[in-house]
Specification:
heterodimer; A: 275 residues; mainly alpha; Ferritin; 0% strand; B: 328 residues; two-stranded antiparallel sheet; 13 helices; 2 strands; PaaA_PaaC (chain A); Ferritin-like (chain A); Ferritin-like_SF (chain A)
């Protein structure tokens, strides 16, 4: 690996979506497989950002409007970087991919598509996703693909905070009042069917050995930390069966159609327009 | 009646401490220096500040709604990120301001209660709907623009915590105004439909933005006292005219127009003049009959009530932790 790559992260030189766009404009082209992998990472971040953005102006405290907004903004930043990079395989921009793909072309997991529910369900989804994403990014920083590694290096510090936020709230809701305990338990039960999908390997992952992180390798550290947090929060790991999901293919939860309808409506009313 | 009691209290023979306090306060105001939270201050000064600062805080919080409305629909990811950051800033402004008001002895819970029970007001502009993406531009350019003109002089307000909060808020507001202008500029140079959308947004927000400066000077009785206390520095009309002068120049860059053919610079007075505003509409909206008054309050109440169990959980958890720490 070359130490001079423009995508290496050094202090004060974080990789922004604009930097990746510049590299793409300068001729960076990636394989279909890497692009497909980047889409999975980018779509999860984008759809979750879209979900969390709803909370801004609706949170239980102003401090939470800011915190959830911050997390959404971080995730949107990750999404923009991954989508810009993925788009280089097909000559497409982040916006082409975000606004002009339809449901079957998205690669998001069922988990991030789940509705916000109450604050407890949102925190349950955040807990699962941020723990998973932390394990994922902390290995992706060693990817043979330097751009993916650089995006992960920047994102990792942010996800560390998202994880802390979710853990702190899980403790408070789990070990707060009877009502908050009940709601937190129910939130965890409600997202639990969609956890397994995050950790499933497939042929794409096999083909991208050294570039992609094997999702199955993340399960043990995820389970260990989750059990520890839930125990401290006086909660248990849900005994809820996994649901059949789309396995990162063309099939999605019923929710995605509505998410995209809202997200894409203005852009699609004005084909060819810039904003 | 509460007002009578207040009046009697104010007219009661002042204690020695109050006399010394008043003398100190008068000197600080005369020197144009700052009053700090622990300083003596007249009750009426304190009340005026709590009313003004909390009204401003409520405006930031309610003002999040029309823009938050477009976070999920922003037409590009970059715009979505900027809008999210902006609305988040507004929540931050609300927090600084509630904190500034708290230094005057009124807790946030009580200020929320005043808002939710309709005893406190917020800026009427937020009772108008945000209907198109161009409204994100018009709100940034005109609404935040008017807010800046209003707020820059407040950075020198005699009450320290308020003035200092305003310094930071004004910096962020100027970023907000630029992003609004940039949205409109992009639309104005875009497709015919985009340009039409931008003009329509300006047409709808122009008059309500001008009304943000408050009633005409002859109809604004509280202004005089606020100016004597160095809270307010310029009259409503002075600020409004200054704003009209600014935007009539800026709109030319957009290649769009302001919906007012009476704008002209009066050489004799050295002031900008504009068409008569519909003050009847202003008072109607103020009384709660604007297009979105009910909707904004309902959303705020919903967020507050739906969050009650979360806040209770956080307090219960903190109490348990404190107890554990004591035992240990």
């Amino acid at each position: 690996m070359s130490g001079e790559s423009a995508t290496r992260i050094t202090p004060g030189n974080a990789l922004r979506p604009e930097d990746i766009a510049e590299k793409v404009a300068a001729g960076t082209r990636i394989s279909q497989d890497v692009a497909e992998y980047a889409l999975r990472l980018g779509d999860d971040a984008l759809i979750l950002a879209q979900r969390l953005g709803w909370w801004i102006s609706r949170a239980p405290e102003i401090e939470e409007d800011i915190a959830l907004g911050n997390i959404a903004l971080d995730l949107l930043g990750h999404a923009r970087s991954f989508l810009t990079y993925a788009g280089s395989a097909w000559g497409k921009t982040e916006d082409d991919l975000a606004y002009w793909r339809s449901e079957p072309e998205f690669r998001s997991s069922f988990l991030v598509e789940q509705p916000n529910g109450d604050f407890a369900k949102t925190i349950a989804r955040q807990l699962v996703f941020s723990l998973y994403q932390y394990e994922l990014y902390s290995r992706l920083v060693n990817s043979a693909d330097e751009t993916l590694a650089a995006i992960a290096a920047k994102a990792l510090k942010e996800v560390d905070y998202h994880r802390d936020h979710a853990i702190q709230w899980t403790l408070r809701l789990g070990d707060g009042t009877e009502e908050s305990h009940r709601r937190m338990k129910s939130g965890l039960d409600s997202v639990w069917p969609y956890v397994d999908e995050l950790f499933a390997d497939d042929e794409l992952i096999d083909r991208l050995a050294g570039v992609a992180v094997r999702p199955s390798e993340l399960r043990a550290p995820f389970d260990a930390l989750l059990a520890q947090v839930l125990d401290e929060a006086t909660l248990q790991v849900p005994e809820v069966q996994p649901a059949m999901t789309g396995n990162r293919g063309s099939q999605h939860s019923e929710h995605l159609g509505y998410i995209l309808a809202e997200m894409q409506v203005i852009a699609r009313e004005h084909p060819g327009a810039t904003w | 009646m509460a007002t009578q009691t207040d009046a009697r209290e104010l007219h009661a023979v002042p204690s020695e401490e109050d006399q010394a306090g008043q003398a100190y306060f008068d000197r600080i105001i005369a020197e144009d220096s700052r009053i700090e939270p622990s300083d003596w201050m007249p009750e009426a000064y304190r009340k005026t500040l709590v009313r003004q600062i909390s009204q401003h805080a409520h405006s930031e919080i309610i003002g999040m709604q029309p823009e938050a409305n477009f976070i999920t629909r922003a037409p590009s990811l970059k715009r979505k990120a900027i809008l999210m950051a902006k609305v988040q800033d507004e929540a931050g402004h609300g927090l600084y301001l509630y904190s500034a008001a708290e230094t005057l002895g009124t807790p946030r819970e009580e200020l929320f209660d005043q808002l939710l029970t309709g005893r406190a007001k917020y800026s009427s502009i937020f009772n108008y709907p945000a209907l198109t993406w161009a409204d994100m531009g018009a709100i940034g350019w005109l609404v935040d623009g008017a807010a800046i003109v209003n707020q820059v002089p407040l950075c020198r307000a005699s009450y320290g915590p308020y003035g200092r909060a305003m310094v930071r808020i004004c910096k962020e507001e100027s970023f907000h105004q630029r992003q609004g202008f940039e949205i409109l500029l992009e639309l104005a140079n875009g497709t015919p439909a985009q340009k039409q959308m931008a003009q329509d947004a300006i047409n709808r927000f122009y008059a309500p933005a001008l009304m943000m400066f408050g009633p005409n000077d002859d109809a604004s009785p509280n202004s005089q006292q606020s100016m004597r206390w160095n809270i307010k520095r310029f009259s409503n009309d002075e600020l409004r005219q200054r704003f009209v002068g600014m935007i009539q120049e800026q709109v030319k860059v957009l290649g769009l127009t302001l919906p007012d053919d009476k704008i002209r610079f009066n050489e004799e007075t050295g002031q900008w003049e504009h068409g008569e505003l519909d003050w009847n509409e202003f008072y109607e909206v103020l009384k709660g009959r604007g297009p979105c008054n009910a909707q904004r309050m309902e959303r705020r109440r919903e967020a507050h009530e739906n969050g009650a169990w979360v806040r209770e959980a956080a307090s219960a958890y903190a109490a348990k932790q404190a107890q554990k720490a004591q035992v240990a």
